[in-house]
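Study this fold:
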Amino acid sequence: MDSSLNTAEMRLHVAFAKVGFTQDEQRAAESLARQVTDWDGFVATAMRNFSLPNMRMHLSRMTPDCVPQKVHDELNTAANASAIRNMLLVSAQHKFKERCLDPLGAEALFFKGISLVSQYYPDLGLRPCRDIDVLVRPETLRPVVLAAIDAGYKFVVPGQAEHPLTEPSEIDAALHYRNDASLLTPEGMAIDLQVKLDKYSGIFSREDVFAQAIPAVLGGKEFMTMPPAFLFNYLCHHHARHVWSRLHWLSDLDALVNAPQFDVDEAVALAQKLNQSGTVEASLEMQRLMSPAQSWDDAPEMWRGFKFLELSLRNLSGDLDLEKRIGFNMKGAEFMFDWQADPSLIRKARLRHSLRVWQPTIRQYTRFPLPRGLRWLYVFPRFMHLLERTRDRGGKKAE
């Protein structure tokens, strides 16, 4: 571990991502807290990494001399706002299911975000959530989007929420060019509809997760979701693809591993079946390294977990642009390290990614609408865009 990353502040950020401490961990965390000199900077980093509610929970259980009172006051305000937003998401999920899914009889799995919190976290307010993630079958995406538009939801392109798609040609292009759909509820909450769980590798394509779906209850109403072992495998893959750039993703690992319904052997066996044993085993190692009582100096057997942890630590002071720079050399836009998955999956991801990047995007269409027969012309501005992006990222990487 790089010594610049192995500091009391870094250790404490990672420790506060846990959803609970043992007595030994509590004492170790208090020792680390007494070494923090810049609490304003510490709180700002935790806020950027969606870790404030967990931080408030842990600090409230420490002896009073560990942290200034003003820190508690700041945390209470921010964490309460996060909890209120989560309650609004609960309502938004209920309404979306009742208005847009149930009338169509559409199969849908709610996962990540507020659904994950309700199943595996000890408190609904502990994990900040930004949107609602829903997996639907490919043939269902268009009917659900159209039903949502009829119900007053806005169909938007990521990054262009101020310009919802309303024309039939725009909607058709968006559903043609993307494997997902972004909706905004009438109250402004975001809903992300997806039809696949990986980008290019096809890790999960052989599994019919709808056939494995289990019921769960959120706010007194039932919804369908992923079984724990499958969800854990998905989270390990998804969060690694985003180079563990937010602390609440580490919290997801800890919450699942410590949940009574989670079977680690089942999760590892599924990882072997999916050919991503490296990713899951490294994630489990990283979860153990989250403990403030675990040394970061003498654990060579967990070297893969350290690789993931270093990615997270390097992102603590960054933003989305930093995440993209760190992931610039990612293999097939899915794997940072060769040991994460079977070589055939990495090759497949690289091939599909190299072909996919040439395809036009919905943003091109919304800026310069062309009729269906002329959309092949988008390849030329797409080429220039990719050339410019590669040059810019290469320059930033060199810096």
In short: Residues 69-101 form the longest helix (33 residues). The chain is about 55% helix and 10% strand.
